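Fold Annotation — chain and its backbone
Next Lines — sequence and tokenised fold

***
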Amino acid sequence: MGGFTAWTFRSFISGGDRCVVQAWYDDQEPEVKAEFDTALERLRVLPPERWDWPYVGKLRKECSGLIEIRFKVNNVQHRPLGCTGPLRLEFTILFFATERGNKIHPRSACATALRRKTLVLGHREYSREWNF
């Protein structure tokens, strides 16, 4: 892989120092946690040019600028939304969504994630490393 170092995953930190990844993770069933962990383990060792379908999707239209991590458990298509950064080989998870009928739910997911992306890229303190 010639000089590639594994990715670091980060979580958006919302008001009150709340780690959004940990809050979501704590509410999930063991099967969902296991698939999420597997998805991150797979992505952690892939160089940036290999972050592609079917493991991730680069979103368009009103979600342009976001990347979705893709995994499915019990017919629920989970879509953690995030972005690269704030530093090289960091990926920050901004919001947890699901997909139904080729649409992201909740409808406000992309707008919220894009607002958070602006905060994270401008101020590193809005994110924290998340170890799964």
